[in-house]
Amino acid sequence: MATDVRNVEEKLDENLLAALPEGGKVVSVTPSGMSDYCNTFRIEVSMPDGSSQVFFEKVANPETKLMESAWTSENTTYEFIPEHVPRPVKKGSYKFRPDRHFFLAEFIEMIEDDIPRPESYMTAIAALHSRSMGKSPNGKFGFPVNTRFGNLEQDNSWTGTWEEYWTRQMKDFLQREDAAHDGEHHAELERLRPLFFEKVLPRFLRPLESDGRSVTPCLIHADLWPGNVKYQTDGETVCVYDACAMWGHNEVDLGVFRNPRYPLGKPYLKEYWKHVPISEPEEDVDSRNTLYMLRNQILLSTLYPHDHKLREIVVSNMKLLVDKVEAEEAAKSGPQTSTYQSRL
Fold it and tell me: InterPro entries annotated for this entry (predicted)?
C-alpha cells in the first residue's frame, strides 16, 4: 500500500492507496481534464528508488455502472493495442465513502491542442480492428457489460446478427432522444422515424449479411472524437482512451470522421482504408458511413437537448438516407411501369 504524505486535511482513501504501488508516497493530487459526469485526477507517487509513477483516477458518486463501463472498455482495448491505451490498474470503491467508485490507470502525458495527423490517428484504429477481428468471445455482437456514451447507457446484449443488434440500438437511442426533448413534437422527425427502420436500416445493413456475405465482429471504440485521441509527448504515437466499447462492425468507428462537428473528414477515412478493406457491398460504404454517423448525432442530441441545432442535424441526415432509398425504389419501379405501359 502507498502512503499519502501530503500536508492536507483530506487524504486519499485507503482502498485507493492500496491500488497504488507498495511503498510509494503520494506527493501530489491535481485535477486532470474535464468531465461532465465524474471527477478526474492526476496522482503522482514517489517510489523508494527515487523514481516517480503517475496515475489517472476517475471517480463517480454514486454511479457504479459508469466505472464498470470504463474498466471493462479500457481493459479490453488495452488487450489489443497496449501501445496506444493507458494501462488499467484497478477499479473499486472507497473504504470510507462506499458510494464513491473509482477507476485507476497509468497516466500518459499527452499533447492537448494538436489533433493527430491521419496516418497516426488511423494506425491505432486500424490496429484495434485488425487485431481483434473475429475474436469476439462468443462470436456475437455486443459486450459483457452495458457501456456508456457520456452518461447514456448502451444496451450491449449479445446478438447473433449485425442488423438486429444495430436496429435495437437505434430504436433505443431514438426513444431516449425523444424522451430527452420531453416528447416535443417534431413533424419531420416523426415522419422519418418509421421510414428509417422500415427502409433505411434493411437497405444498408441487410446486404452486409446476404448472398454469402457476413460481418465479423471486431472490437470498436465507439467514441473516437478528437477529445479521446491525442498525441503522446513524442508527437508520433497516439493515445486512445475513454472507449464505450462493443463488438461490432468495424465501420461504426468511422462514422465520427464524417461528422462536420469535428475537423477530420475524408483524409482520415482514406488512410484507414489503406489498412482495412471496405466491407462488401463496397458501393454502399458512403451511405453506411452516414448511417453510423447518425448514432453519434442522436446521442449528442440526447445529451444536450437544449441545443436544438443538434436535433436538426439528426433530422437532416435521416432525411438524406430516406430520400436516397426512396429514390432507388423509384428508379427500380420506373422502367417496369414504362415497359408495361408500352405493351398496352
Answer: Fructo-/Ketosamine-3-kinase, Kinase-like_dom_sf
Q: What is the DSSP track for 305-344?
A: TT-HHHHHHHHHHHHHHHHHHHHHHHHHHHHHHHHHHHT-
- What dihedral angle (degrees, nearest 10) is formed by the CA atoms of 60, 61, 65, 66? -20
Look up cell 416528447; give the residue.
183
> Average of pLDDT values for 289-318?
96
pTM of the model: 0.91
Kindly report the number of other CB atoms within 10 A of residue 232's CB atom: 17
Q: What pLDDT, in 10s, does the model give residues 221-233?
A: 999 999 999 999 9
- Strand duo 25-31 + 3-4: pairing: parallel
How would you label 63-90 residue by residue, b for 16+ Cβ within 10 Å and e otherwise? beebbbbbbbbbbbbbebbeebbbebbb
Burial of 291 (0-12, 13-18, 19+ CB in 10 A): buried
Angle (nearest 5°) at CA 166 between 163 and 168: 105
Higher pLDDT, 337 or 149: 149
**Domains of the chain from N-terminus onward:** 23-107 (3.30.200.20), 111-330 (3.90.1200.10)
Q: Does residue 267 have a cis bond before it (omega within 30 degrees)?
A: no
3-state SS, residue 14: helix
Burial class (CB in 10 A: 0-12, 13-18, 19+), 245: buried
